[in-house]
């Protein structure tokens, strides 16, 4: 899906939820949509400062908190970075495939994996707070190099 269609879909979703999709939130969303993988908060800040010289770290973190809360992005904990969600209208639990060579992050949305994880946790009386799964390895391109 093109970046402009993703942005329009995000705007409509925010309108339906009755939340504000501010200019800064849109800009951070667009930066992540344009990226070829995950981006750290300070990389996003550097990019944002090209159009908003006054932007500071709290600006980015507030925008990222909003995008996380509403399911537009996933946090890649092992990289301390963020990646745009490919299925943000569904606000789902994600599985991320992370290439340790090039840094590419591919999102999966397997209900079977999510169900198996929740079942295993329930059997152990464990409450999962953050169900995102990260798997590290090599993408197809890096395997061929």
UniProtKB/TrEMBL annotation:
Pfam families: FUR
Keyword Nuclease: no
Sorted UniProt keywords: Cytoplasm, DNA-binding, Iron, Metal-binding, Repressor, Transcription, Transcription regulation, Zinc
InterPro entries, per database record: FUR (IPR002481), Fur_C (IPR043135), WH-like_DNA-bd_sf (IPR036388), WH_DNA-bd_sf (IPR036390)
Record text on subunit structure and interactions: Homodimer.
Family: Belongs to the Fur family.
PANTHER family referenced in this protein's UniProt entry, alphabetically: ZINC UPTAKE REGULATION PROTEIN (PTHR33202)
Protein name: Ferric uptake regulation protein
Organism: Catenovulum adriaticum
């Amino acid at each position: 899906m093109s970046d402009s269609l993703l942005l329009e879909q995000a705007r409509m979703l925010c309108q339906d939820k009755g939340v504000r999709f501010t200019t800064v939130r849109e800009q951070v969303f667009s930066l992540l949509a344009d990226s070829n993988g995950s981006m750290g908060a300070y990389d996003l800040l550097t990019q944002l400062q090209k159009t908003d010289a006054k932007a500071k770290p709290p600006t980015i973190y507030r925008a990222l908190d909003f995008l996380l809360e509403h399911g537009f992005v996933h946090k890649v904990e092992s990289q301390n970075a963020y990646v745009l969600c490919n299925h943000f209208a569904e606000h789902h639990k994600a599985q991320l495939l992370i290439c340790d060579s090039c840094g590419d992050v591919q999102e999966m949305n397997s209900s079977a994996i999510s169900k198996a994880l929740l079942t295993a946790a329930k059997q152990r009386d464990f409450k999962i707070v953050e169900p995102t799964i990260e798997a590290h390895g090599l993408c197809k391109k890096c395997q061929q190099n």
